Amino acid sequence: MRLKDQVAIVTGGGQGIGRAYALRFAREGAAVVVADINLENAQAVAAEAGALGARATAVRVDVSDEASCAALAAATVDHFGRIDVLLNNAAIFHGLDRSDQSLAYFNKILSVNLTGVWLMTRAVERTMKHQRRGKIINQSSTAAYMSNVGFVDTSNPDLPSPPFHYGLAKLGVSGLTKFFAGSLGAFGINVNAICPGVTLTEATKSVVPEQIMQAIVSNTALKRALQPDDLTGTAVFLASADSDLMTGQVLVVDGGMIMLG
User: Fold this and answer.
1) What is the pLDDT of residues 61-88, one digit of tens each?
2) Is residue 151's pLDDT more than 80?
3) Strand, helix or coil at 7?
4) Of the listed 21, 105, 145, 166, which one is catalytic?
């Protein structure tokens, strides 16, 4: 068990990739706080983690709300006494409305998908600083590195450009990872990011048309889409002592399409 006796918070842990992270951490011996805006889903995943023999609890959190993030961090310390790992996974993706061009919707996506990472990191950093150690793992996306080339509608020049909210937020997460790594490293806190490619979750199926999904997968070196469990090994590595000398890095796990270096 690579995370024995560690205490890990997984935001957005009530479904999809977040659920896979929470259950893998539980299998690796961590105590898991499953945090989600949908408390019922979080409770179900916490029960699954408990059935695996892990200590687990569920907490409702709205990562776009500063007080809610602070309450989650406080509840974790009250329940388990410490915070060793924060996995910033929560994001708006399921049912993402790409047709909504409004500023209000743009700000809503960024408030959860980018500002939420900032707020949660700020919420746990004081505890981790006093511990002089901690692992923060941010969930970015290959959407941060893909342009609109080939998908531009030229039929009507009066149409606005796409909102870019999701990809822009994830690009911000990758950048924020580096800034926090620089500011928290002296306290023994590592900050890294996972950058998944197309992952076969219900959220992906609700947003990405099947034809586009197949085209993206066909352009990868390994020619297959990821399952949520394919990402969990990278998360365990970043949460464990094996990555103690790694910080400020964005690790792409996408079957070999976006090859950063």
Assistant:
1) 999 999 999 999 999 999 999 999 999 9
2) no
3) strand
4) 166
